[in-house]
Predict the structure.
Amino acid sequence: MNETSITHIGELPRRFELLGARLWLHVRCVDCGRAAGIAEDEPVVLASVVKVLLVLEFFRQAAAGQLDPAERAVVRAVDRLGGTGTAGFHDDTEMSLRDLALMTMSVSDNTAADILFRRVGLDTVRALARQLGLERAQVTGAPREVLESMLEDLGAADADAFAAAFAALPAEEVHRLRALDPARTTSATPREMTRLLSLVWNDRAGAARACAGVRALMAQQVNGARLGAAFDRFTTVAAKSGTLPGVRNEIGVVTCPDGARYAVAVFTRATSLSTRRPDLDTAIGGAGRAAVEGLRGCCGSPGPPGD
C-alpha cells in the first residue's frame, strides 16, 4: 500500500483535543490503495462497528447455502437488551434472519446482532477476521457479552443496579471497564477497518452477492449524523457507527460523483461520558471529509467530494 502524507489532517488531533477527545483515523482509496492516517495502527474499541464483520459472515454463509436467509427467528423477552430495534421491543416478535441483519445494521439493534452471532457462530466470525488479514482484530463476544462484562465489573446483579452504580461512578473509573479497553474487548485498528471495507467494496471479502449484501445494508444506516452529514447529496456514504460510554466511532465508504471510492475509519474516545455529543459527531464527519479531500488530491482526483 502506498502511504501518503496529507498535511492538513495533521491538525485534526488538536481539534479533537479541544473537544476533550482523542482521534484515530485511516482513509484508503478503494481503487488504487493509496492511504493515510493518524494513529492508524493502534487498537481501538470497535463497539457496534464489529457488526459489519458479523453481517458479512451471515451473507457469506447464505451465499454458500449454509443457512437460509428466510429462516425464522423468535425474539423473546430473555433476548432483549434494551435500546433500538427488537432490543427494546415490549413483546415477542418473529422475523427472518435477513431482517435481523437489516435491524443489526440500520438501527444497530443489539438483540438482532446477538441472535445472528448465535446462528453464524462467534468462532466463525473470529476466523473470518483472520482470513481477511485483520491480524490484530479480536472479537470477544456478542453485545450481550459486552453488557454482561460491564455488569460484572461494577458488581451489578441486573440492569437497574448497573444504572445506579454507573451513574455514581467517576469517569476515570468507567474508562477502566473491560468493555472500554481495546486489550480486553472487541477491537481492531483503523487500518484494518479500511482494509475490511476495501475488500467488501471490491468483492474480495467473499462471494460477490455476499459483499453486495453488506454494502446494501450499510447504505441503510439510519444514523447520518457523523460521516453522512459531512458530504452533500451528490456523494454517497454507506457507513456503520459504534457507540459506548466515551466512545464514538464510524467506518464507511464515500463514493464521489466521479465514481472515486474512499474507505474511511474514524474512532474517538472522550473523557466525557455524555450520550449526546453533536459536536463530536460533527467533528467525526469533518475529519472523514478532510481525509477524503486530502487523499483525492494525492490520487489526482479533481476537487473535493461533491463539488
The two ends are 27 Å apart (CA to CA). The beta strands are 21-29, 35-38, 44-45, 72-75, 93-96, 187-188, 236-244, 247-255, 261-270. Residues 278-299 form the longest helix (22 residues). The mean pLDDT is 93.
